[in-house]
Design brief:
44% helix, 9 strands, 268 residues, Rossmann fold, four-stranded parallel sheet
Amino acid sequence: MSNPKRKIMYLNPVGTPLYDQVFADMAAQYKLPDTEVHVTSLAESEGAFTHIEFRSYEAMVTAGIIKATRAAAREGFDALAIGCFYDTALHDAREVSGDMIVTAPCLASCRLASNLCNRFGVIVGRQKWVDQMSSTVKHHGYSNACAGFFHVGLGVNEFQADHARTNNLLTQAAETAIEQAYAEAIILGCTLEIGFHERLEKKLGVPVIDVSIAAMKDAEYAAEMKKACNWTPSRKWSCEAPCEEEMAKIGVFDQGYIFGNRIVVKAN
């Protein structure tokens, strides 16, 4: 299909293409046939990050997310998903996104979970993540629906080291969330492999949400509604965008090609 009905970007906000193919495979499996998805990661010049678990890493990579958002908007994307469950730079990116809609995994998965249940549990890698993620859930207005955060003691890179071990740890944490905190759905705060959430869902008997799928589908739905209803992002009050002339004078918003890798999942 040469002219896709909607065009979205899934931005992996790290300076390595290490996980891009995982997200491209996810997009290929779950996107609508007439959607084109570009899976991108940042140039290594933005920092060779393989994860952004630390606030200091987030702070360093935020500039890259801003520049990537600007670049995606100029390319005419309908929507962009920032692929980190911290929802890193979500509100910052929205300011410079033009007519493009920006979403992120925590917001998208909480919104989806609230349509599926009254109380959801969130499985995360490390206890380190919990303070920031709980603040993000609260900011989005879903803290009353969150039954708790349950960590498995693994960093982002460790998730992929031993899939069998990670599988067992995630399963145990999810069972604890359901049996002890009475969670009625599970949000997987970090992606293990495509299709894992479906296998876990069958085992647990409750909805299990993969946050990368939720973010991609949220962006896709936003793009669809944008076109169907002519809805574009607000630029009023707290949503006010920076002045283009002033950004041009500052001179750091549009420097160079920001993407280090890109995989295009074409419309069928």
